[in-house]
Design a protein that fits this description.
InterPro entries: TPR-like_helical_dom_sf, TPR_rpt. Pfam families: TPR_8. It comes from Cerasicoccus arenae. With 101 residues, the chain is an all-alpha fold. The protein is built from six helices and no strands. Helix 4 packs antiparallel against helix 5. The radius of gyration is 13 Å and the shape is globular.
């Protein structure tokens, strides 16, 4: 499993947010949503302008049934996608948010 590679890296350098993001992404891909959430939240809280962990955290929250918590995170990610000119993520986020309404 890819997550094991990043678990080792996080264990060696727990303050490295790139390792935390990669671990969260790997756990998400492995459908280990509850495990991914902790690492993605840390990334979201580390930088106000980091879009990708917000997208994944929002998706994690949707997968775990916490739509109320997911919506503002996904809206924040959409604002970042627009400001940073990331058209594909913006389109994906609009679609997700539209489905939540």
């Amino acid at each position: 499993m890819r997550s094991e590679i990043f678990r080792e890296r996080v264990a060696k350098d727990p303050h490295n947010t790139l390792f935390r993001y990669s671990l969260g992404q790997a756990l998400f891909d492995e459908k280990a949503y509850a495990d991914a959430q902790e690492h993605l939240e840390l990334c979201v809280n580390s930088r106000d302008d980091w879009m990708m962990p917000r997208i994944l955290l929002g998706k994690v929250l949707l997968e775990t049934g916490d739509t109320a918590a997911a919506k503002p995170i996904l809206e924040d990610a959409l604002q970042l996608a627009v400001v940073q000119h990331h058209d594909d993520p913006a389109a994906e986020l609009r679609s997700i948010l539209e489905d939540l309404n």
